[in-house]
């Protein structure tokens, strides 16, 4: 970078790199300039006033003899003129003293302003130093430190509050990430332990035959499938952490109909049937893929818990400024103390059954995350022994405008001609 392209601050000497020094110099220069301007104005005004005297009028020289001595040429002046001359001389000396004292006072003022400006700048910039120290002490694994600034609600106080709020968000994000990694590693450790244990048993048994190897192979395959499901759910969960990038106007009623058709065969295989009720024109601004995933998770959960011979009801409608989608089953229901935990990651009511079915415990958590990304909310109504109803709420939007293309011709020209002739 050439010297011509550098900014003014970059061209300053190294000792001027501190903001405190620059503020001190700026404060002193401004104060010295204002004081100098005031002193100069006072000096000019006083000087003009003191020199504004009437001129001394002199008479013609006269030859006189004093005390019998030789004649001398004497010039007479008026008494008032003599007094004015003395006053003028005194004024000139007073102006010289005023000029001397003014320069001395300005020099002392400049030195004092440097000291006072340095102290004031240090006090003003003290909160910034505190922010810097906190930021320097913070580590990636410990974001619990806060500035917690006291004092007036000025710009620096607002900066510190903004920094604290950012630290709180980062702390929450890192804590969520650590918890997610811990839970995910715990969930992956179990199937890995199953695979390792079965392989060690069959390899350490000298009498193991083909049937034993086949049985272990089936266990390993089933466990690997469960791990694959868990990894897929983890990847889906991670993708849902980002805001929906393919959002657009969609009719929820059409997605409800598609979901009912997609899961009809699965429901019939389990001895169930699906009832779909949806009013057309339920428009929302959403990611269609995300909504389909949420409906799929809810339907899979309902089919898994609903007893054979019952119905799973999928419905959608509009209530005020909200579009709702509900999935109802007649399963065992959920206890009141568990109705909040069902939305948590890796929560499973019957862990033994969940492991046997290869479930990861992320399905409802993914549903809640998808709905939250669309600025909606989830709701659960459940009673033990009667079943559960999961409701998703999305902000409704106005329907898209009608197509402004050409109106289709309903009759050919001959029909129109005959109609006009009649």
Automatic annotation (TrEMBL):
SUPFAM superfamilies: ATPase domain of HSP90 chaperone/DNA topoisomerase II/histidine kinase, HAMP domain-like, Homodimeric domain of signal transducing histidine kinase. Residues 413-422 have a biased composition (Low complexity). Its main location: membrane. Residues 403-422 are annotated as: Disordered. It is an enzyme of class 2 (transferase). GO terms for molecular function: phosphorelay sensor kinase activity. It is found in: Membrane. Residues 122-175 form the HAMP domain. Pfam families: HAMP, HATPase_c, HisKA. The chain crosses the membrane at residues 21-44, 101-121. Its EC number is 2.7.13.3. It catalyses: ATP + protein L-histidine = ADP + protein N-phospho-L-histidine. Keywords: Kinase, Membrane, Phosphoprotein, Transferase, Transmembrane, Transmembrane helix, Two-component regulatory system. This is histidine kinase. It comes from freshwater metagenome. The lineage of its organism: unclassified sequences, metagenomes, ecological metagenomes.
């Amino acid at each position: 970078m050439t010297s011509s392209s550098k900014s003014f601050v970059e061209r300053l000497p190294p000792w001027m790199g501190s903001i405190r020094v620059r503020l001190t110099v700026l404060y002193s220069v401004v104060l010295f300039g204002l004081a100098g301007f005031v002193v100069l104005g006072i000096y000019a005004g006083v000087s003009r006033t003191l020199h504004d005297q009437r001129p001394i009028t002199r008479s013609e020289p006269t030859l006189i003899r004093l005390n019998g001595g030789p004649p001398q040429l004497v010039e007479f002046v008026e008494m008032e003129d003599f007094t004015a001359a003395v006053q003028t001389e005194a004024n000139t000396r007073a102006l010289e003293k005023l000029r001397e004292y003014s320069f001395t006072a300005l020099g002392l003022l400049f030195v004092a302003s440097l000291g006072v400006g340095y102290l004031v700048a240090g006090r003003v910039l003290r909160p910034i130093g505190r922010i810097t120290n906190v930021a320097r002490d913070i580590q990636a694994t410990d974001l619990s430190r806060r500035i917690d600034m006291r004092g007036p609600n000025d710009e620096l106080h607002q900066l510190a509050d903004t920094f604290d709020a950012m630290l709180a968000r980062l702390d929450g994000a890192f804590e969520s990430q650590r918890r997610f990694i811990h839970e995910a590693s715990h969930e992956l450790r179990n199937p890995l332990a199953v695979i390792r244990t079965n392989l060690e048993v069959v390899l350490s048994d000298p009498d193991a035959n083909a049937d034993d190897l086949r049985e272990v192979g089936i266990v390993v395959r089933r466990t690997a499938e469960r791990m694959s499901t868990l990894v897929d759910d983890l990847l889906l969960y991670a993708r849902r952490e980002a805001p929906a990038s393919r959002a657009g106007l969609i009719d929820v009623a059409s997605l409800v109909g598609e979901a009912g058709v997609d899961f009809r065969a699965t429901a019939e295989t389990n001895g169930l049937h699906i009832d779909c009720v949806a009013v057309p024109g339920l428009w929302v601004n959403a990611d269609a893929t995300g909504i389909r995933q949420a409906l799929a998770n809810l339907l899979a959960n309902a089919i898994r818990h609903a007893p054979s011979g019952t119905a799973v009801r999928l419905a959608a409608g509009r209530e005020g400024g909200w579009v709702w989608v509900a999935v109802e089953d007649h399963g065992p229901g959920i206890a009141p103390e568990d109705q909040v935990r069902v939305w948590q990651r890796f929560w499973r009511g019957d862990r033994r059954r969940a492991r046997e079915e290869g479930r990861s415990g992320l399905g409802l958590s993914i549903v809640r995350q998808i709905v939250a990304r669309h600025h909606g909310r989830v709701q659960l109504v459940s009673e033990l022994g009667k079943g559960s109803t999961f409701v998703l709420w999305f902000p409704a939007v106005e329907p898209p405008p009608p197509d402004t293309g050409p109106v289709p011709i309903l009759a050919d020209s001959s029909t129109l001609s005959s109609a006009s002739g009649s």
